[in-house]
Amino acid sequence: MALFSSFETFVALGARVRWCSFNVFSMQDHAAVAIAKAGTSAALAWKGESSSKHWWSTEQMMIVPTVPGEDGCDQFAEDGGDAYPIHKNKKFEEKYIKDGSLLNPVSTTKAELRYILQLLADFIDKIKYTCMTLKCKGVSHEITSGVHCHRETTATGEQLSPAINVNDYVTKLKFDYVLGCHHSLLDSIVYFTDAMIGGKRILVYGYSDVGRGCAISLRGIGAYVLLTENDPINAPVYIENNTIACDIGHFETGIDNEDLEPLFAVTVVNIKPQAIYLVFPGSSNGIIVLTSGRLMSCSFINQILAQLT
């Protein structure tokens, strides 16, 4: 619902707003209904949408004009860099115009990229991505993965429009990372597992603002908190049975589920929606993974300030 306040602010400032979900697991129908009922913004999201529908909605949000006869949106306020894969379809479109070729969706093992390439193959028309990028005046990024994407495309010369990093604003770092984690982490773990946190041993990877906020919250409710830096070279070899694995981040940047399941040849057991139990082969031991590693906390006022810049 924090996003709803952002939409109301954009509309009050004179903008026409289109919106899609940035996280297929965190979307709530009552939020989409509130936006649609207000009649001020177009909502392209629903609870339980698949990854393929997520990317379809993202493209519809970006491509379909807010004003008839115009090409797409003037600006993007995004959380996680989701707009960039579709934004970069301009490059594939240019190749298609040149020689009629498209990248084959089965050419990659990454599920998310397959959805994007399939979307391109199904709906390419030679001009829409070019028109979209010409129309776009700029983008603001809310979270670390989006900032990384911006830096990568800038380094390779593929950045198609100016971008503002709102992820590193002090209001984001302190309110969202430190204070926001106090509530969202515990709320998610208790909601999905009904586990009692007090007395548990909990390992927090990384002790920056996010890690600090999580550690303070967990310690405050009575957990015995261990801290370490998130160095993949020193990743733990042994994981205790029934460990709860979750991540305050965007998509699988913290927990790579796509590689986790085949790597350990685990059996996946659905405990409840957005909570799975991964059983390791040859034993009954396993770990609990929440929302595929996509727990989120929100702070969006910086997006509004960035779009006004």
From TrEMBL:
Keyword set, alphabetical order: NAD, One-carbon metabolism
A GO BP annotation: S-adenosylmethionine cycle
A molecular function (GO) term: adenosylhomocysteinase activity
GO annotations of cellular component type: cytosol
Swiss-Prot/TrEMBL cofactor(s): NAD(+)
Domain S-adenosyl-L-homocysteine hydrolase NAD binding intervals: 180-301
Top-rank taxon, per record: Eukaryota
Sequence similarity: Belongs to the adenosylhomocysteinase family.
Listed name of the protein: S-adenosyl-L-homocysteine hydrolase NAD binding domain-containing protein
Native organism: Polarella glacialis (Dinoflagellate)
